[in-house]
């Protein structure tokens, strides 16, 4: 399979799982508290990784020792912080606000890469981002863009903005990951996520907000611990390796589309015309950005 096509398939599966993570986070309200969900998902993930990644971790131990702080930092920022902000935001803000704010991740990645590394980008990529953002907005507003004018920022929106910043920073920082097996990378990052979630769950308990999972809560924990915590992170790292953070980050705009489709399948919402139009806009924007991306010579000149 050509590298580009392989990356596209990998990143679409990744964002499908992340769309499910957002739906699961909304379904978790009242069934398990945000920090408890954040912590338990990494208990599940680390247990699985302990079984399957031990040989690779032992082999990569010298490199892990040299880069342990960076690897734990990946888990703290990209895994724990993002999901803690996301799950907390869904307690306070509407789905419309959360979806639109998540769509800001690719633009933040563009800006950070340019400011820090002067990474080349083209007007076509900006145009593609704008097109996908319009599609996301159409989905979030249920086909009536005028409703966006009435949005009010609240505590949840502020938390979503923090989630956008931390995940964009995590994506950009993946360029510094050491040359170790992907199982080792995910395993140590997951350990960092688990360790960094402990103070959060202590804080939640001390404030009286801790809610142990019920049956539905445990189902959500199992889903979050296996798919968003493991499978999607593995695929996203591979996608960034194949086509770089700028191009990979653009696929994040498909999360609201997949989230909408999963909501239709799981909650029984009706498929509307604007859903189809929005999907065309999002996928068309990705295509525009891909076709007009800077070529290797341009990127070399920029650097």
Distance between the termini: 30 Å
Largest sheet: none
Question: Which class best fits the helix and strand makeup?
Answer: mainly alpha
Oligomer description: single chain
- The helix/strand series, from N terminus to C terminus, equals HHHHHHHHHHHHHHH
Number of helices: 15
Gyration radius over CA: 19 Å
Q: Please report which band the strand proportion falls in: under 5%, 5-15%, 15-25%, 25-35%, 35-45% or over 45%.
A: under 5%
Principal-axis shape equals globular
**What is the residue-mean pLDDT, rounded to a whole number?**
84
- The total beta strand count reads 0
Q: Classify the helix fraction into a percent range.
A: over 70%
Low-confidence stretches: 298-303
How many discrete domains?
1
Structure summary:
It comes from Rhizobium giardinii. The protein is mainly alpha-helical and 303 residues long. 78% of the residues lie in helices and 0% in strands.
What does this structure look like?
By secondary structure, this protein is mainly α. It has one domain. It contains 15 helices and no strands. The chain starts with a helix and ends with a helix. Pfam families: EamA. One of its GO terms (cellular component) is plasma membrane. It is found in: Cell membrane. Keywords: Cell membrane, Membrane, Transmembrane, Transmembrane helix.
């Amino acid at each position: 399979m050509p590298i580009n096509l392989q990356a596209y398939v990998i990143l679409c599966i990744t964002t499908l799982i992340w769309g499910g993570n957002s739906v699961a986070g909304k379904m978790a309200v009242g069934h398990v508290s945000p920090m408890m969900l954040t912590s338990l998902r990494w208990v599940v993930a680390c247990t699985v990784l302990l079984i399957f990644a031990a040989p690779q971790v032992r082999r990569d131990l010298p490199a892990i020792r040299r880069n342990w702080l960076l690897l734990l930092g990946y888990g703290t920022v990209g895994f724990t912080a993002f999901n803690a902000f996301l799950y907390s935001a869904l307690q306070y803000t509407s789905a419309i606000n959360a979806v639109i704010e998540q769509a800001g991740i690719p633009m933040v990645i563009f800006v950070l890469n340019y400011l820090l590394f002067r990474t080349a980008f083209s007007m076509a990529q900006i145009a593609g981002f704008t097109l996908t953002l319009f599609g996301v907005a159409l989905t979030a507003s249920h086909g009536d863009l005028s409703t966006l004018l009435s949005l009010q920022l609240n505590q949840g929106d502020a938390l979503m903005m923090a989630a956008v910043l931390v995940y964009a920073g995590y994506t950009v920082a993946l360029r510094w990951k050491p040359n170790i097996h992907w199982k080792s990378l995910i395993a140590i990052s997951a350990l960092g996520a688990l360790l960094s979630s402990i103070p959060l769950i202590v804080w939640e308990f001390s404030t009286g907000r801790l809610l142990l999972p019920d049956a539905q809560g445990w189902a959500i924990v199992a889903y979050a611990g296996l798919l968003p915590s493991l499978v999607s992170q593995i695929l996203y790292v591979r996608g960034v390796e194949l086509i770089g953070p700028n191009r990979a980050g653009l696929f994040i705009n498909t999360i609201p589309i997949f989230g909408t489709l999963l909501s239709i399948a799981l909650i029984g919402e009706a498929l509307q015309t604007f859903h189809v139009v929005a999907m065309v806009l999002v996928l068309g924007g990705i295509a525009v950005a891909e076709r007009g991306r800077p070529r290797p010579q341009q990127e070399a000149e920029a650097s």
